[in-house]
Each structure stands twice: as C-alpha cells, then as structure tokens.
Amino acid sequence: MKLNRRKANIVKNAVEAWKAEGVVSEAESIRLLSAVEVTKFDWKRLARYSFWSAIVCLIISVTSLIADQWVQDLIQKLSDLIQRIFHAPNMVKFVLTAICSAGLYHLGNRMTERRPQKLYENQAVLFLGVLATAWSVYYLGLALDTGSGHFSILLLFACIIYGLVGLHYRSTLIWVFALISLGSWMGTETGYMSGWGAYWLGMNYPLRFVFFGAFLTASSAVFLRLDNYKSFFHPTLVMGLLYLFISLWILSIFGNYGDMESWQQVKQYELCGWALLFGAVALGSIYHGLRYDNGATRGFGVTFFFINLYTRFFEYFWDSLHKAIFFAVLGVSFWWLGTKAEKVWNLKFIEKR
C-alpha cells in the first residue's frame, strides 16, 4: 500500500498503539508495517494541482483571446450566423435540429459501446438527443401548422421516433420518453376527439389513463419473451404502474366527474367504489409482487395502498375529529410505519452482511 509520508506516519502510530494495547502481536505489527510503502513523491496531489493549474491557464488564455480584435470580429460573425439560424424558416430549423439529434444519438451509442462504465455521461448525451428531437418535432409542427389544433399528431410522431431509436440502440432511457410521449398523445388525442370536453366515451381523464396504464402494464410482459429486449420490461412495467396508480388515486378522490361543480355536489360515500377499486388493485399488485418476487409491483402496491389509506383518513376524519386527536392518530400511524420499515431495512442489512 503506497502512502505519502504523513499518512504513513498515521498508520505507523496506529499499529504501534495497537501493539502496545495487545490488539495485534509483534509479528502482526511487523507484517502490517511492511505492507506500507512511503512514496517519495505525491503524484496524486500533483495531478490534482496540475488540473487546477490547467483550468486557470485556459481561463486566462480564453480571456486574452477575447480581448484581441480578430477574436471579437470572429465572435461577431458567429453571432450573425446564429441570428440567421434563429430567423431561418421553421422547416430549416427542423432539418438542423433533426440532424443534431441524430448525431447525438449516434455519439451516445458509440460512447456506450466504448465506455459502458461511464453511465451518466453516456445517458447525458442521449438525453441531449431526446431534447433535440423534441425541438425538431416542435419546429416541424410550426412548419406544417394548418390551424386545426390537432397537435396530438406531433406527440405521436415523437413517440414513434423515440420508440424506433430506443429499440434500435436498445436504450431504455429513450424508450421511457417514448412511453411518456405515448401517454401525452393518448390524453391529447382523446381530448381533441371529444372537442376538449370533460368526457370521452363517458370517461374523464383519470379513468382513461387507468385503462391506458393497465394496458401498458400488461404489455410489458411482451419484452420478457424477447431475449434482446428484456431490459425494456422493467421501465415499461414501471411506467405502466405509474400511469395506473396515479390515475386510480385521482379517481378515488374525484370519481368520474369532469368539473368541480358536479364533484362538490357528490356525497362522500358515493366515491367509496373508486376507493375500494384503488385498494383492490393495490392489494393485487402486492400479491403479484410476492407471488413472482417482483419488486416493482410489490413496491407500487405497498406504497399506493398506504396512500389510499391516508387519503381516506383525511377525507373521512378531517372534519369529524378534533385536530389534536387527528394528528395524534396520524403521528402514531407514521411511527408504527417507520418502525416496521426500520425492521425490514435491518433484516436486509443483515442479509447483505
């Protein structure tokens, strides 16, 4: 073990203290001290200082360059070019951003193949490609806008692009954005078809997304049968469960009502059916997670089962209970929940050890 002189002295003093206290024997202390090699020069510190110095020098260099007249002229020309790009027709902007997004996808994929250990850097490049695609679709919409207001087609177009690119490069990050775009398209398309009314086929927005989330959750099983795309199973399942449970939660509070005036006239017990449905789906998700050892379904089920219980607690007892009793019961329940969670965490910690 190579250490600088200061750290080597610390280790030496510690070993000597252990030997004096009888923690280690004479032979063990000699063996430990023989493993320590004092470096005559701290290369790590030199590298750190060198990088700092390089950054400072680069800042000084750039500052000096900016002060030169020819550099100022170059910056002005670049500024004029950028102004022309911003004032270019929308179709030109679409082409430029589309080329940029394709280049970023290709670069991110090459980086992933060559340096898979640099996960965050690779994902950041792919995310820039996702943003560039969003901008290109936006400019395409401006270029082809006819005033119909049917912009949901653009969301479907973005979903198709993200889906194809994600499957081609086997990128779960891009695939997640495809699912987000698909959900956005579903919401806006059904809104457009209903004339932006509250209902479509008798369903308000939360109820529509309950069916959409259930469909997405069920369709995630398809990826388990595809050897090359099994990594897409988990993100598809999680996105489906997210759509499903958030929609069920909203539905358990507001029901299948499209405006606040109608909802305020409803008796609380009339929404019990939605709350029971929410709880049943959560229990079913817990059962699936325990039965098939699926952490996603188990985690979503437990989390939203407790969200359902606490939501009902606030609904039914906020007005009827004294606030001191209300928050006392709430505090005791959280204490009990924290105790149980701590026990589970301790069991997992022991298993890992």
Rough shape? extended
**Major sheet strand order:** 1-2
Mean pLDDT: 77
Following the backbone from N to C, one meets helices and strands in this order, namely: EHHEHHHHHHHHHHHH
Which class of secondary structure composition applies to the elements?
mainly alpha
- How would you characterize the largest beta sheet? 2 strands, parallel
Proportion of strand residues: under 5%
Spatial extent as radius of gyration: 30 Å
* First and last CA, distance: 26 Å
Number of strands: 2
Low-confidence stretches: 349-353
Instruction: Classify the helix fraction into a percent range.
Output: over 70%
Helical stretch count? 14
In words, what does this structure look like?
- The longest helix is centred in the C-terminal third of the chain and has 30 residues, at 323-352.
- The protein contains 14 helices and 2 strands.
- The protein has helices at 5-21, 26-34, 43-67, 69-86, 90-114, 119-144, 152-169, 172-193, 205-219, 233-254, 260-264, 272-292, 295-317, 323-352; strands spanning 2-3, 37-38.
- Strands 1-2 form a two-stranded parallel sheet.
- The model is unreliable at 349-353 (pLDDT under 50).
- It has 353 residues and is an all-alpha fold.
- The two termini are 26 Å apart.
- Helices cover 78% and strands 1% of the residues.
- Among the domains are: 88-197, no CATH class; 211-320, no CATH class.
Quick structural overview:
This protein is mostly helical. The protein contains 14 helices and 2 strands, in the order βααβαααααααααααα.
List the helices and strands and how they pair.
Blueprint lengths: L1 E2 L1 H17 L4 H9 L2 E2 L4 H25 L1 H18 L3 H25 L4 H26 L7 H18 L2 H22 L11 H15 L13 H22 L5 H5 L7 H21 L2 H23 L5 H30 L1
Parallel strand pairs: 1-2
Helix pairs in contact: 1-2, 5-6, 6-7, 7-8, 8-10, 9-10, 10-12, 10-13, 12-13
